[in-house]
Amino acid sequence: MHNMAEVLHKGYQIYVYLALGRLFSALDLSPDQPHLEGFLDEAIRRDSSRVSKEAIMHLIRSNSTMTQKVLNALAEKGLASVVSEPRGYDIRITRGGVAHFLRFRLLYNEIYQKELKQHFRFIGLPTWLEDSTNAGARK
To answer: What kind of fold does domain 12-120 have according to CATH?
Structure first.
């Protein structure tokens, strides 16, 4: 029988953070890039900044219902735009989402440290997460 303290629960809040990080990585910008603000509008408009619902679902390794809950939370908080199109969903981070990600990423990494390690244990950390984890370790 498992001790309840040992069981790691990944609620939808960690999934919101994972999705936000994935959306930021689609911009192909570094969180530590100087003058990041000047590149945001162009980066968000690029077609390559579009992320599909399937990519988010694959990242969080969950079902369509949980993925939709995550997308709704991102949209309601103004962190992402979620548009249903004939070819699928067009999901993009917003300027507000970028600001939120940059401001809180180190805190989220600390809070969710065990859950993140467990979630990515077989495939390794995504680049955007490695960068912020290393930045936190340097301080």
So the answer is: Arc Repressor Mutant, subunit A (1.10.10)
